[in-house]
Protein: Elongation factor 4
Amino acid sequence: MSENIRNFCIIAHIDHGKSTLADRFLEVTGTIDKRNMKAQLLDQMDIEQERGITIKLQPVRMQYTHDGVPYSLNLIDTPGHVDFTYEVSRSLAAVEGAVLLVDASQGVQAQTIGNLYLALEQNLKIIPVLNKIDLPNADVDKTSAELMHLLGCERADILTCSGKTGEGVASVLEAVIDRVPPPQTTNVDAGLQALIFDSFYDDYKGVVASIRVTGGSIKKKQKVTFMGTKATAEVLDVGHYAPKPISDDTLENGHIGYLVTGLKELGEVRVGDTVTTTVNGAVAPLPGYKEVKPMVFAGVFPQEGDDYNALRDAVDKLKLNDSALFYEPEHSQALGFGFRCGFLGMLHLEIFQERLRREFGLHIIATVPSVAYHVTKTNREEMIVKSPQALPDVQSILHIEEPWMTVDIITPQEYIGNTMTLVTERKGEYVNTEYLSTGAGQRAMLHYHM
Structure:
């Protein structure tokens, strides 16, 4: 019954308490026993636990009874850092609603706005929630005013909770059931359509894809086709995360779960592709995702030249799990064979290096990060230059374009002058100013192109 399914995710700025609130959800719904409970339960990677940040999106299914009716709640916990925005945008395409979480002591921040824009692009139902109301410096009224300005909502629409103490968490779950629409019902005979929003490689199971079923159903032993790559596979297993994988007989319309393909060729399963049955399958694929543009490029080379093949295999496997990663082969006279890799930011690069070391035992040399330039030559040929060595002779260059960004800067009112001076020195072009709140401690959002 898809009427009793709710698919939602939590979006917020860094350290506003997404993973802690997800922990409380698991506790309140009884998904995890008290004895097995630990902080940041959905952050599965060691590096996430150590740094206290979320790097990977993580789906989980919870059962909850509201007004005597049992509901199946599929939650996707998302990262807050701008370097992992692609994880957020993929999560949003798999759900119908989003809990917009804001720290009551810090108010609306940059990624609150960035992630909200992504959610509105997908036409999701937004549930505004103030977290950390147990803190002594929590300012519920001021943060509520900022949210009302941002969303144009009523004060009564904003919920308050504390992920740490558990206060108000049940009312957030009830709001998800009441406000988030159930998945759209589709014609059962129209064939299976399932969107791949994440994947990873298992040495025994092959490629395991996380999917959102948007039409039809998928069962074990069925033959399926990946519409983008035209690869076919037999379904070895399907199931859901709770948060460990639990095998099911079938996944139906509206369900979020996993699909074990058994495929060993990593390129055959791509994030954003559509899975359908080989016999009587869907006619058209789902829209998928926009290709992500890397912001920072760096050369990555093995410390030992013999490790090049191992590095290539490792990068292939990481690409499966980290769709925002871009790479192409590169040769350096000093460092030998390696890859020119594109990342969404410096933290993304750092996490990439750390994962290569921990998961694959590889030590690499990374060159100084740079951005890509767009070069037009005198013969009107256009090229994208990602490293200084690739820049053509000065005589043959007509003009060079550098990356240009739309920047929103949130600052307390008393620092507006200094901030504007700093941006002007960096040749930023002023667009306009918005005020997020009124009264004492007023904050402004400056819009720039730079």
